[in-house]
Design goal:
- It is built from nine helices and six strands.
- By secondary structure, it is of the alpha/beta class.
- The chain has a single domain, classed as Decaprenyl diphosphate synthase-like (Undecaprenyl pyrophosphate synthetase), CATH 3.40.1180.10.
- The protein is globular, with a radius of gyration of 19 Å.
Length: 263
């Protein structure tokens, strides 16, 4: 994928096309992670049941996944369901799972067309058997794709992931003196993938909510007041443009060239 392919997909003359032309193709984030927030508030503003916000959010998922793939991102991670979401009313949880299955059935062809590999991160074994079957089918169908990796975080929690990683380390019998950050990362759900360069949160909330706690140590964070069902290509492009303007120091100090002896 490339910026040219994204431009070919976007209607000519649209504001989105102007944003694409501002991007530096050499400074694209390798991995973008998104906390999809605001479905309930979107529905409440329209005096609709909360589940209607979740239904509307599917359009945002579709647009974001396809835009990311055409843009050429290596990895996109969307947080769909947390370990704490089981506390919600059973009817809402059931609707979320039905919508997930429906999305996978309807969008599988799009994932294949765009060479997207689908992966689940979290604790899927605790999901209902019919949901697991749909997830496993989508993973198997897209396993040979070589383009963007699309992670969907289901029954996911950042602390739970770290606990699971520790359990894997112990099960592997790795001597404590051989354990370092690089080795530990091999036991995370995202093993083999780059850490997120950019973390996006919708709905204006200024918190991490237990998402990718290990991986986002040096991620740039971009928050928008836009509620998730209204999130579209232009919002993703705005976030990436903001990312490209930031000075990523990774804890270091940017030293003026003159101080290094430059003339």
């Amino acid at each position: 994928m490339s910026l040219e392919q994204l431009l070919a997909w976007i209607p000519p003359g649209s504001p989105d096309a102007a944003l694409v032309r501002q991007l530096n193709p050499d400074l694209l984030p390798a991995h973008v992670a998104i906390i999809m927030d605001g479905n309930g508030r979107w529905a409440a503003k329209r005096h609709l049941p909360r589940v209607e916000g979740h239904r509307a959010g599917i359009d945002a998922v579709r647009d974001t996944v396809e835009t990311s793939a055409r843009l050429g991102l290596q990895v996109l991670t969307l947080w769909a369901f947390s370990v704490d979401n089981w506390k919600r009313p059973r009817s809402e949880v059931n609707t979320l799972m039905r919508l997930l299955k429906r999305y996978l059935r309807l969008e599988l062809a799009t994932l294949m067309t765009n060479n997207i590999r689908f992966r689940v991160i979290g604790r899927p074994d605790e999901l209902a058997p019919d949901v697991r079957r749909e997830l496993q089918a989508a993973e198997a169908e897209t396993a040979g794709n070589t383009g963007m990796e699309f992670n969907i975080a289901l029954n996911y929690g950042g602390r739970a992931e770290i606990v699971d990683a520790v359990r894997r380390v112990l099960a592997a019998g790795l001597p404590p003196e051989e354990l370092d950050e690089e080795r530990f990362s091999r036991y995370l759900y995202t093993a083999g993938q780059p850490d997120p360069d950019l973390l996006i949160r919708t709905s204006g909330e200024m918190r991490l909510s237990n998402f990718l706690l290990w991986q986002i140590a040096y991620s740039e964070i971009w928050v928008t007041d836009t509620l998730w069902p209204d999130f579209r290509c232009r919002h993703l492009l705005d976030a990436i443009l903001a990312f490209q303007k930031r000075d990523r120091r990774y804890g270091g100090i940017k030293t003026p060239a003159v101080a290094l002896g430059a003339k």
